[in-house]
Amino acid sequence: MISKAIHNQKHNIINQSVIALIMVILVSVSCYFFSAFIGYKVVAFILLMTVSILAMLFEIVPVLLAATLSALIWNFFFIQPIYTFHISNSEDMLMFLMYFLVAFVNTVLTVKIKKMEKKARDKEEKEKTIKLYNTLLNSLSHELRTPISTIIGSADMLLEYDAKLTSENRKSLLSEIEIAGLKLNDQVENLLNMSRLESGILQLKLDWCDVNEQIRLVIQNHFLSNPRILFEEEENFPICKLDIGILEQILINLIRNALLYTADNCTVTISIQVKEEVLLLSVADNGKGIPSEHLPEIFDKFYRVPNTITGGTGLGLSIVKGFVEAQNGTIAVKNTIPNGLKFDIFVPVEITYVNQLKNE
To answer: Do the beta carbons of residue 322 and residue 200 sit within 8 Å?
Structure first.
């Protein structure tokens, strides 16, 4: 691995050196044709500018080579007597030495400035990463501890007081364990999904899907058929070819987000449409919505709208956006009238109808 990196670095330096030398030669040739009009002092300035530009783009070795070549070309083709490296005039000799010095100093300083800027960017990126890491840890310490504590506490009650518990008590404790387990599973899924998105290893697994059926299963399996969630099936809806797992994760995160940040008397409405082989999935609530100035930021990792309740890791909507874009889709969010928030997801899909699918 290290030898490969060294090989790539050497190859990159060679390529930069070739480009830098060609640039100096091209500029020198251009100046040569106009040397009678601009004079050799102006040529020196133009060559120095060329070396300065190269110093901002390339590594130090290619730029030093370019600076050396430009000085030799300026001496050989522009300083009297031309076509020789001999300099008869002491003033020209001083200028040539100054050119050499300025070209090299300029190259070294520019490269050092680039390294300092890179170091500053790396430090800023590191501080940002540490801040995000701490935010995630603080969030997880609460979000994971709560369902784990619920599961352990309920399990202890079942074990220690089994004989004294009524069937209703057992049913209630088991329900709490199930709810906490689902919540814990969702948090772990979010972490794994974010890892997949950031590592770039996400691979789509396209399959034919009954979208109506899939939405029903998500509501039933992950939200225990919560009465706050409303979904009206679309009759004669086409079968769509998409990644069923990704669709499920998008729905889970959007529904969970809506349930978490709206009051208990609010509802979450899911609707679907398809037009010109684009699936439109909408998830809307009738809560308070959020201030419009915060809408562009709600898909950022760990972002929380100010003055909202605590809860969640701040990854859900970021994961939704990542999954949608992985399918070449787009997501939009807006406040609805008279109140509430609505997410619209547009994903290009291949469609067919049941009769057609049977014949394929």
So the answer is: no
